[in-house]
Amino acid sequence: RQDYPKARLVDAQGVALRASDLVTDQAYLFHYPFRAVPCFLINLGNASAAPRTLSGEDGDYAWSGGTGKQHNLVAYVAICTHQLSYPNRATSVIRYAADAGKLAGKPGMIVCCAHGSVFNPADGAQKVSGPAEHPLIPVRLEVDAQDDSLSATGVDTTRLMERFFKAYKPDLIVEYGPGGYRQPVGSTTTTMLLDQFSHIVPRC
Q1: CB contact set of 169 (below 8 Å; sequence gap of 6+)
Q2: How far apart are CA 102 and CA 39, in angstroms?
Q3: Contact of 131 with 75, CB cutoff 8 Å
Q4: What is the pLDDT along the chain (204 residues), one digit of tens a residue?
Q5: Taking a C-beta distance cutoff of 8 angstroms, is the pair 125, 110 a contact?
Q6: Distance (Å, rounded) from C-alpha 109 to C-alpha 114?
Q7: How far is CA 97 from CA 30, 81, 108, in A?
Q8: Who's near 24: CB < 8 A, 6+ residues apart?
Q9: Is the model's pTM score more than 0.90?
């Protein structure tokens, strides 16, 4: 478990997202805790996510489950734990499949089209099928009871982020500048639907 400075999720105009306004047909994309680390925010709709103990590459950790009044809001680092596929501006081979598909088999799964891993976001993003060995990394969320805004407050494991930085360092330097990819996002992080962030989001 690693706490980071709280970052409020805001839209492109800087207006805070409201938990009650989130759509359910696709994931939102934001970056946290560093500028280059992409994360998914998912509204599970009528499904709720209960706390549980998970096992990742850093060992066992306690996942706090879904956030919000119905415990149906979850967030994960959007980097596949198999071979580190992730969303970038050009394309995102990893996505939330709200509807049933050939790879997912049933609705409400996170699928990685690169190598066929499927994760269940209602179950701590544990692997359902495919070559990935570990769940996606949960991002802790907080909902403000007064204004219904959302904030990210930490992540549950960190080793994968270091592998990601090492594997994609040249690409990340091009996009964020030397050292820029490791900079904290600050007090807010811009959040948008995945298909607004990535030009191509393949279906598989």
Answers
A1: 181
A2: 24
A3: no
A4: 788 999 999 999 999 999 999 999 999 999 999 999 999 999 999 999 999 999 998 899 999 999 999 999 999 999 999 999 999 999 999 999 999 888 888 999 999 999 999 999 999 999 999 999 999 999 999 999 999 999 999 998 889 999 999 999 999 999 999 989 999 999 999 999 999 999 999 999
A5: yes
A6: 15
A7: 17, 18, 6
A8: 43, 44, 45, 98
A9: yes
Token representation of residue 142: 């907080």
